[in-house]
Amino acid sequence: xxxxxxxxxxxxxxxxxxxxxxxxxxxxxxxxxxxxxxxxxxxxxxxxxxxxxxxxxxxxxxxxxxxxxxxxxxxxxxxxxxxxxxxxxxxxxxxxxxxxxxxxxxxxxxxxxxxxxxxxxxxxxxxxxxxxxxxxxxxxxxxxxxxxxxxxxxxxxxxxxxxxxxxxxxxxxxxxxxxxxxxxxxxxxxxxxxxxxxxxxxxxxxxxxxxxxxxxxxxxxxxxxxxxxxxxxxxxxxxxxxxxxxxxxxxxxxxxxxxxxxxxxxxxxxxxxxxxxxxxxxxxxxxxxxxxxxxxxxxxxxxxxxxxxxxxxxxxxxxxxxxxxxxxxxxxxxxxxxxxxxxxxxxxxxxxxxxxxxxxxxxxxxxxxxxxxxxxxxxxxxxxxxxxxxxxxxxxxxxxxxxxxxxxxxxxxxxxxxxxxxxxxxxxxxxxxxxxxxxxxxxxxxxxxxxxxxxxxxxxxxxxxxxxxxxxxxx
Length: 475
Known about the structure:
Blueprint: H1 7-14, H2 21-24, H3 27-46, H4 50-63, E1 67-68, E2 80-85, E3 89-94, E4 104-110, E5 115-126, E6 129-137, E7 150-157, E8 163-168, E9 178-179, E10 208-211, H5 223-236, E11 246-252, E12 257-259, E13 265-268, H6 271-286, E14 293-299, H7 316-329, H8 334-342, E15 345-348, E16 352-353, E17 375-378, E18 382-383, H9 394-404, E19 412-415, E20 425-426, H10 430-434, E21 439-444, E22 446-448, E23 455-458, H11 459-474
Helix pairs in contact: 3-11, 6-11
């Protein structure tokens, strides 16, 4: 006689059941997640650009005992060091018991976010108003940027050799800046059968309004522009020609705020990728020293393909690793670095999209991530036929699953690709680590409104990312 099968028990054993973090966690863990995100919001408000993020991260690192690698004559187990590349990259390492010979645990995130850059010659006057020409950075929907409050952040390198930091529009008593938009009364078809359509906002339309008061001299040709230039010179010592050697970004001035009656979500500029870079940084600081050397990397230029000398395609990573190898093992051979890469594991800590109920048609709902359901692990990104991506191996994913099971509060969700096949797509920094023969996978926080001036993230997912990265470092 055949044994009666308990199918309810079998279903529990064999099927994957998805639950949100809020359904799984106890009250203590929920409160810890909320507390973690209070510090995260402070970080978001202070670190809106790459330079600011590096500066604040170094200050944090020093409180945890990290030293500039340039100050070190040798390295031993437990030493904590960092290196900076052009004020826009931060590389940190904790030396493990086996140095680099047994590989590394790497978590890498990017710290650039979509924004508007001042053009080289930005300031002009038109209709007795002064504007600044901008060039957008990263993938944006242009219509989202007019009619919102913007702040200016950046640095201007003056002809006298001094550097001036700019940060205006963040405090309540400071002015903000805006891009104008056309009123709906004039932005509509002329009538039935009209070929005139609503205007599309183009890149050249993203001009920032700076002021309207003229100087008191009717003989001056551009009186308002001169008034703005006079202000910049009196306040900062900036002449118009100095803007050629400037990096000024226009970013949303809105502060990070709790969203929803239950305060379980955060609205903010720059969740992509601060939600992951902050979680990576704090998990790295809190992780215990292990056999393998632990590395945390914060890079620039991801939003535009990781090109340039501050993107992860640059050779600064190899330079940093060679420096560690020389100080720790008295070796200075790239072959040793390549060997270490081959036995290393990495997480590309980057955000992804969460299923938005209003736009379900663009998602493969069986293979998509949800808000509040924990760490989002993307086996691959890219587009179409898996172009322009790396793909994590089955073996590496199995190892991660086993590692994350060691912490009962880590909740994971798995997906591949952004949206339906041939519908969406996107790239991350993972493939540039994979090109170095490192096992790597994307794992981060799912968002609403990705690349918009204000993005939305769940406090549960942010804290879960922290727990996951820390567990990865320690195992």
